[in-house]
């Protein structure tokens, strides 16, 4: 018989990283810190003022939907585990062990869990955040187990939140719950260790997990574009056309596998947040802007007249079969006003790892890029505490995005 869910706490406590693991942790920390600082102008900063750092940092870090993704678990591992680790004073080992737990929990939940509308970043995230904080607080395997069990009541989240501020907020709730659970466990709070297994079965997980292999099986995918990962390949496909003047386009036809549409919103986006989950908008933005940036996903960008006209001429076709947001392939066909047409297809997705330095500079500016890229865990915690202080008073007024 293989390893089971109940073996995860002991695995996390005994985990010893190698250099390749530490490199993954460094990359994840830099990416998470950069995208969290890049969201400084978002309304969620004011809305979370005065709330606990774990909640605040995770929600702000996920606000742009620019943080990395673990594809096998369909979850945002780093923003959850890094925020919990930073809030609890941990480092590489604590982050990596928690990331390994979250990746395995999310993978065991599987695509069926995601297809039913769960947000795996929250369901797998709350127990994983508890692991990060429990290890940072020095708990043993029994303590980690109690912390994970105490996080169970908050281990949930739904995809109806996508396209609204509820999505990053529910990630923040999950991280805060995990850190709070670990602190309660450290203070001696008791919990039934079977609560975790019972919850896992209720949400459709398989109790057998694979503990061998890399710390994060499948690795972590860094995003090049600040939107849902299901849109990364369609944008990359559209970019093969270069910048296209909207007045020269008669229509745009997009063909994807049906599972790609699972996390995406229907209809035309009305806001920048909705645009981050809109397939037609993502492709149109790539055609108009060339390389979509944070500025491409604002309310103002969505309202551009040339974009609205091009969206009127855009159609999405879904092919049955497959699973996961990278199922099948993406085809974009542009039919021009002069009667000609061109088609581009991609089956792959560009890796963002080699572009991380450019991404960091784009997020924080070239002046701070070196500081952010070389930051260790204590440095990152200080930077976030200065940018988003815990004692900042709550604000009720609305704040513009930029």
UniProtKB/TrEMBL annotation:
Residues 54-197 form the MmgE/PrpD N-terminal domain. Residues 225-354 form the MmgE/PrpD C-terminal domain. InterPro entries: MmgE/PrpD_sf (IPR036148), MmgE/PrpD_sf_1 (IPR042183), MmgE/PrpD_sf_2 (IPR042188), MmgE_PrpD (IPR005656), MmgE_PrpD_C (IPR045337), MmgE_PrpD_N (IPR045336). It comes from the Bacteria. It holds the Pfam family MmgE_PrpD_C. Belongs to the PrpD family. This is MmgE/PrpD family protein.
